[in-house]
Amino acid sequence: xxxxxxxxxxxxxxxxxxxxxxxxxxxxxxxxxxxxxxxxxxxxxxxxxxxxxxxxxxxxxxxxxxxxxxxxxxxxxxxxxxxxxxxxxxxxxxxxxxxxxxxxxxxxxxxxxxxxxxxxxxxxxxxxxxxxxxxxxxxxxxxxxxxxxxxxxxxxxxxxxxxxxxxxxxxxxxxxxxxxxxxxxxxxxxxxxxxxxxxxxxxxxxxxxxxxxxxxxxxxxxxxxxxxxxxxxxxxxxxxxxxxxxxxxxx
Length: 251
What we know:
Blueprint: H1 2-21, E1 25-30, E2 35-40, E3 43-49, E4 62-65, E5 68-74, E6 82-88, E7 95-99, E8 114-117, H2 118-131, E9 136-141, H3 144-150, E10 166-167, E11 173-174, E12 194-195, E13 207-208
Parallel strand pairs: 1-9, 7-8
Antiparallel strand pairs: 1-2, 2-3, 4-9, 5-6, 6-7, 10-11, 12-13
Signal peptide: 1-23
Domain L,D-TPase catalytic: 25-141
GO cellular component, one term: extracellular region
């Protein structure tokens, strides 16, 4: 009788253990929609936004089995970037993990991993840990190019920060930098073929302009040197000397 009870207890434990093994976790990632669906024994339990690899680092498509978990992992390839609650599903290092860049969830932005928010990554990690990492499958479909076409990247803000203007006592803006003087605009004067004296002695007298002369307005005229005029030269009378005598003197 005792042996019968022992055998019955062992059978119940075995059946109970097999029922636990049958709980399968299926993680499906739709890269077109940048969304993850988590099902346990065929029943959907979670649906979260994710961020898969960008077109230069496309996350591979296919069906994989998770094989390793690390609660506090850091990337060895990308400057020790934090990868909390990592669940690895490829031999080359692709994993599902948490991220602080929650603003980029919904668009492909990673170097190949599947990013989740830290809270969702922690929930998924606890589920896989309780059901068994070797009992978890990861399947991926879609393309990063399609995801970008559906949800293009927002344009970067190219506005340049400028210093607030200074104001004087009455509230008027003060220009700190010197401003160039406005250019003088003078209407073009028609050339009638006559000129006035260059010395400025008269603005009434006019003379025919020489050949090849071109008239300029005030804005184009270059300063001309002023001609110096001198009065008539006056010379002192030449002195004449009388010849000196041989034996006399002059007073």
